[in-house]
User: Fold Peptidase from Mobilicoccus caccae.
Amino acid sequence: MESLPLFPLGTVLLPGVRFPLRVFEPRYVAMVRHLESTTAREFGVVAIRRGHEVGSHIPELYRIGCAAVLKNVTRAEGHLVIEAACSRRFRIESVDEGGAPYLVASVEWLDLQAEDVAVEATNGARRAFESFSRAVGAHVQGLPQDPGRLTASVLDGLGLPLPERQKVLEAGDATARLRAVTRLCHREEGLAEVLHCRAATVTPSSRLSPN
Assistant:
């Protein structure tokens, strides 16, 4: 087991995604300052199953999250803006709520080696999302080439709720996650055709807007 500082969020992040985040709560400011003093600069991002990002109450968390490496910190009045890159997935085995100002988890790593992504899975996800977009009369802008960012972008473009996004994270390795979003594209396309849904533009994004 390895210890990992936790940053609970009201969203799901996937491996391969870079994201900005505004940090203002004292406990997470303390976490960032601790990370800046370490070599690994790694922390865990995990989605909140029930509860809120802010406040004294400890939220109920999903067990599987994604580690992120702190890349840059910008200081502003009253808060920090951090830039981080998601890397490997983990499973939470236990959470220490009192050893530090922030949550620290004992985690088991799920991605133990570099992943070889199946080309057919990448191409299949791209085709499925393009087909979904045509079904809803949408124009697709900016699908990335990288398999990890492609998965996140397609998931963003589908606009699915958090539990569905969490299932993609939990689906397995990068190839399994691509196949998961491919199935979701087919499902949403079928629903769109039944319900006669139409949209103007679908703009996938692999970045999380600052909150």
Remarks:
- The chain has two domains: 2-109, 119-202.
- The first strand starts at residue 2 and ends at 9.
- The radius of gyration is 18 Å.
